[in-house]
Amino acid sequence: MLVDSVPHNHVAIIGTGFGAIATAVRLQQAGFDDFVLIDRAGDLGGVWRDNTYPGAAVDVKSHLYSLSFAPNPDWHNVFAKQPELHAYLRRVTDQFDLQRRLVLDCEVEELRWEASEQRWQLETANGQRTAQHVVVATGALAEPVIPDLPGLTSFKGARFHSARWDHSCDLTGKRVAVIGTGASAIQFVPAIQPTTRR
Fold first, then answer.
1. Which sign, positive or negative, has the C-alpha torsion 166, 170, 173, 174?
2. Best CA proximity match to 86, nearest among 71, 65, 59
3. What CATH number is given for 8-136 in this structure?
4. Residue 195 has what pLDDT?
5. Separation between Cα atoms, residue 188 and residue 55, nearest integer Å
6. Terminus of the chain with fewer CB atoms < 10 Å: N or C?
7. Residues 14, 138: contact at Cβ < 8 Å?
8. Which residue ranges make up each domain of the chain?
């Protein structure tokens, strides 16, 4: 008898940020055991893994970032910083024994519904998988958007998106231009201002 070599799960959750972890825990609590969390990176955490810019923190009060089934009364700041949020997600993952369900370094490249089989086919960087149900929990901020600005490609200085902060680029004494005034900018601008020239 041949065994199907394509991994199959009842539920495949794409992502490992807050939404994905919350979904996994709630599935587990509802009695579902056959699920995986798939992430393209080598670590869990979603936006709180990827956004490591200076001053990275939540822009709402920390207690709202405590999952109802895993309250955290020990936040160090009213607006928790990125390392603490990332650590919290790791703790929740350990607390609910989700490590064994992680499929990391596995980017999902395509989803295709197979009507005849009544299941999803997932094309990943590591090969095919299938699932009865797929939860896309990649978040709205998973991919940074670089605007198409005139002269950007010919700009000679360092340039990067705050969501992919280049920690090898020392901004000390440099003239820095920031494009955008959103939540990230209001966090990293005050963090870099004391050491930049302008």
1. negative
2. 65
3. 3.50.50.60
4. 96
5. 5
6. N
7. yes
8. 8-136, 145-198
